[in-house]
Amino acid sequence: MLRKQWALKYKSFNTCNWTKPIWSDECYIYIGDTRGRIYVSQCPDEEYNENCLVPTFKQFFLWVMIWGCISKGKKGPLIVLEYPGGKGGGMNTDRYISQVLEGPVTHFFAEMKRLRWRPIFMQDGAASHRSKRTLKWFKDNSIPLMDHSPQSPDLNPIEPVWHELKRIVCTRTHAPSTISELIQAVKDAWDQLEIKDIDKYIDGMPKRMQAVLDADGGHTKY
Questions:
Q1: Which of 54, 75, 130, 133 is deepest in the core (most CB within 10 A)?
Q2: Which long-range contacts (CB under 8 A, 24 or more apart) does 118-121 make?
Q3: 25 within some domain
Q4: How confident is the model at residue 218 (pLDDT cuts 50, 70, 90)?
């Protein structure tokens, strides 16, 4: 029901041509995450034939977590988040405010206002996003928030943008072999994303909203 209510609210909100949502999200980028099985066709007497075996290697695994935002006609900043690791080393209020809000969001919001738009910021319901200090930061900086329905990645147009970014990273001629190379590959992929391709996902939001309403708040194909 929350999804249906959100879809109705968005349809009403979307009638204001001067207001532009800033869609934001975090995303993990993995390299070397091979979880699928490999099948080999063989005859009964070829079980240990060298040509029918797949060699195994020590697992190679890299990952980074990124944050980014988009808006109609504008591609916002991309941030590679810095985590110390270990217990308590993930995203929290301090890191969200210092690495994302103070600087990237502040500057992008100001840029949108200079273009004479009325931007409104969308973030999901992660704990660091909804903490008292985070909400106070938005209030103190006069940045309005647009609520987002929980567990609804299909209602955020930045999700397909992440898929496209991952595709670009994975189709590089030479796969990144270090964290620094992966970070550079992610930044290069973000730079390659064209505004027109991002806009098509934002322009598709009315169809997504209608799909949610048609499903009475249930799951959709998006």
A1: 75
A2: 118/16, 118/18, 118/19, 118/20, 119/19, 119/20, 119/21, 119/22, 119/71, 119/143, 120/19, 120/20, 120/21, 120/22, 120/144, 120/145, 120/146, 121/21, 121/22, 121/24, 121/145, 121/146
A3: yes
A4: low
